[in-house]
Amino acid sequence: MIEVKNLTKRYGENIALNNISFTVGENTIIGFLGPNGAGKSTTMNIITGYLSASSGSVKVGGFDTLDQPNEAKRMIGYLPELPPLYMDMTVKEYLNFVYELKKVTLPREKHLREICALVKILDVSRRLIGNLSKGYRQRVGLAQALVGNPPVLILDEPTVGLDPKQIIEVRNLIKGLGKNHTVILSSHILPEIQAVADRILVVNRGSLVADGTPFELEHSMSAEHHLSVRMEGAAEEVEKALRGMRFVQGVQNFGEKEPGVWEYEISVAEGEDLRRALFSLASKRNWPVLSMTSSDLSLEDVFLRLTGSAYLQDNLTKGGDAQ
Amino acid sequence: MNAIAKKELKSYFLSPIGYVFVGVVLLLFGYYFYQVIRIGSSSYVPEVYGTMFIWSMMFLPILTMRSFSDEMKNHTDQGLLTAPVGVGAIVFGKFLAAFLVFAITMGLSLIPVVIISFFSSSLGWGTVFGTVLGSLLYGAAMVSIGVFISSLTQSQIVAAIATFGVSILLLVINQMSGLVTNTFFSNLLSWISFDTRYQPFTKGIFNLSSIVFFLSVVAVFVFLTARKLESKRWG
User: Fold this and answer.
1) Taking CB atoms and an 8 Å limit, are A84 and B76 in contact across chains?
2) Do A191 and A229 share a domain, yes or no?
3) Does A103 fall in a domain?
4) CB-based contact (8 Å) between B3 and chain A?
5) In terms of domains, do A61 and A27 share one?
């Protein structure tokens, strides 16, 4: 559906995008992830035809965005970072304008009503956009992208400015849309991408640094697997028993965390799952297991490794609740 | 194009700008028509339009100042430029809306003329229509220049003042052509002058080359504005 080939964008000396290529099939949700200023919006602006690339090409639904711009644009519904809303229009007037601007041929009343119902703005359809809250404006922006029912939706940070309840609503909405639309969704918030995307593209400083499903990304980066366990029981005895297990490569004692409870980190041979064996061992010896977590690299860790410290600085305060 | 012109026209009359423009220009028309009635000769009607040329040129920048400046400032141009519409159509829609506000004003200015015609048998409608046609022509040209200037800046004020500067220049260019000794430049200046091209209309002279001139100005500036918008993509 979308074919991006060797896309490069230079602003004078600065390289905003460096040779990015990817393709997106039909009915998938692609998460575009990267720290602020990584090139997410630039890529989206080029796909939608708002900006031109310095070199490379973009095809949407088989139409080259340079050679057949109007055909390509007709395939796309775009919600830019700042929704293009006219503050002096009512929601209804605005959507009617967009309907005419995009030269949509679907039955007008019905189509616009369906969209308003979908993004839940029916109750404000007669109000001035300038008087709406940020959350509602964002939804009007989303409605605008949906007008004409384009097969491709490009959403630049669609949940910015929404409250937690609205964020969940919009995520579910996007998930639903992904069943019969190709969606590209950008965010610098990892859990958001993780929640909706079928595939994740990570960009950093203008380059594509990773491309895969959330599962693939989590596993590709972590060669070793660890199991972190808290067990009640005499430490020495437990440690010895753990070491004696199959596939265990090493055990580290992190000390007594609660009275009588020790925490251990167990290194496991690659590709082996120790959890069940550990459970039967513990129950046989009557050592209550109080917690057990498999410490694969989380997506957050993967992301941090890929993008370096830039993300950390940006998101240290807000990104901590990833898992 | 249709959608943009319609939306623009609406927004002129959703904000005070449209009413203020139409109102103030008609007020001035009223003043001059009052003079015509006082003098009691309908032959002065075309001269009202001749005088209104200066005022109209002064007020036209108000109509065009927000055309693209506002869109760029509020990032709404992103919506227009990513819609399946060519830039030419976008620019022409903007131009058309501002021009229509001016045309509405000129249309309304004919009401006093109709009333005067009831009391005067000697009113030359041919001349009046020629004059109004001329007004629409210079109006269209000025609007296209204003729309172009508004595409150069995000600030409405800067756009208004710059357009105002251009219209003043076009008003004084006549006198400048008298001051220049070089015949070529003198001719060039009076060739550009909107006033020299417009005034014959008020005397009932229908000049084809002037019509072509004004329409060419429109075409050139609509084209330049479209190129300006296009160039933004390559920034």
Assistant:
1) yes
2) no
3) yes
4) yes
5) yes
Q: Are A28 and A198 in contact (CB under 8 A)?
A: yes
What is the ipTM score, two decimals? Answer: 0.88
| Burial category of B50 from C-beta neighbours within 10 Å (exposed 0-12, middle 13-18, buried 19 and up) | buried
A197, A220, A243 - which closes a domain: A220
Q: What pTM, to 2 d.p., does this model score?
A: 0.82
Closest partner residue to A78 (CB to CB) among B2, B82, B233 is B82
Please check whether residue B10 touches A, CB under 8 A.
Answer: yes
- Give residue A203's domain range: 2-220
Place of tokens 């084809």: B208
Residues 31-90 of A with CB under 8 A from B: 45, 48-52, 69-71, 73-74, 76, 78, 80, 82, 84-89
Overall domain count for chain A: 2
Residue of B nearest to A48 (CA): B82
Dist CA A72 CA A64 (whole Å): 7
Question: With contact defined as beta carbons under 8 Å apart, do B141 and B218 qualify?
Answer: yes
Angle at A185 between CA A179 and CA A189, to 5 degrees: 125
Contact A214, A54 (CB under 8 A): no
Token pair 């141009």: residue: B77
Give the integer Cα–Cα distance in Å for B102 and B96.
10
Number of Cβ atoms within 10 Å of the Cβ of B228: 17
Give the integer Cα–Cα distance in Å for A176 and A196: 10
Q: What is the pLDDT along chain A (323 residues), one digit of tens a residue?
A: 899 999 999 888 888 888 899 999 888 999 988 888 888 889 999 999 898 888 999 999 889 988 898 999 999 999 998 999 999 899 999 999 999 999 999 999 999 999 999 988 999 999 999 999 888 999 999 999 999 999 999 999 888 878 888 888 888 889 999 998 999 999 877 778 888 899 989 888 888 888 888 777 766 655 456 788 888 888 888 888 888 888 888 888 888 888 888 888 888 877 777 888 888 888 888 889 888 877 666 666 667 777 765 444 454 444 433 33
